Amino acid sequence: MADIDLTASAAARVAAIAARQGKPAMLRLSVDGGGCAGFQYKFGLAEAADAEDVIAERDGVTLVVDNVSLDLVRGCSVDYVESLGGAAFRVENPNAASGCGCGTSFSI
């Protein structure tokens, strides 16, 4: 199993955002302390991968995760979901013991 994965839906959304902003189609996922459950996911477009980053690619889009964050998201899949409540990147994290209602925070 890959360390991290990016769904086709997420890849398409990253490609669209990057094209609009004139940036590389590269999404960085990191984990910060905080949020309502202990840790929170952070997403942002990246200009380049660092030497120690773990990389996943799909449909010409790159997902990068730093080594420290990887310990908390190993085995995860990043998806892009549109619903009545809005649209957002979601992390399907098999390591999370619990999450929160907003879907951006988790605990191990």
Question: Can you put this structure into words, describing what you see?
Answer:
- With 108 residues, the chain is of the alpha+beta class.
- It has one domain: HesB-like domain (Hypothetical Protein Aq_1857, Chain: A, Sandwich).
- Helices cover 19% and strands 44% of the residues.
- It has helices at residues 8-21, 67-73, and strands at residues 4-6, 26-33, 39-45, 54-58, 61-65, 76-83, 86-92, 98-99, 105-107.
- Strand 2 (26-33) and strand 3 form a beta hairpin.
- The protein starts with a strand and ends with a strand.
- The model has no long low-confidence stretch (mean pLDDT 85).
Task: List the strand order in the largest sheet.
Answer: 4-5-2-3-9-8
Low-pLDDT residue spans: none
Mean model confidence by pLDDT: 85
Q: How much strand?
A: 35-45%
Total beta strand runs: 9
User: Given the structure, what is the number of helices?
Assistant: 2
3D shape: globular
Assembly level: single chain
Number of individual domains: 1
Largest sheet, strands/sense/barrel: 6 strands, mixed
> Could you name the CATH class?
Mainly Beta
CATH architecture: Sandwich
Structural class: alpha+beta
Straight-line N-to-C gap: 20 Å
CATH topology name, in short, is Hypothetical Protein Aq_1857, Chain: A
**SSE series:** EHEEEEHEEEE
Roughly what percent helix? Answer: 10-25%
Q: Report the CATH superfamily.
A: HesB-like domain
Task: Give me the secondary-structure topology.
Blueprint (H helix, E strand, L loop, with lengths): L3 E3 L1 H14 L4 E8 L5 E7 L8 E5 L2 E5 L1 H7 L2 E8 L2 E7 L5 E2 L5 E3 L1
Parallel strand pairs: 1-6, 2-5
Antiparallel strand pairs: 2-3, 3-9, 4-5, 6-7, 8-9
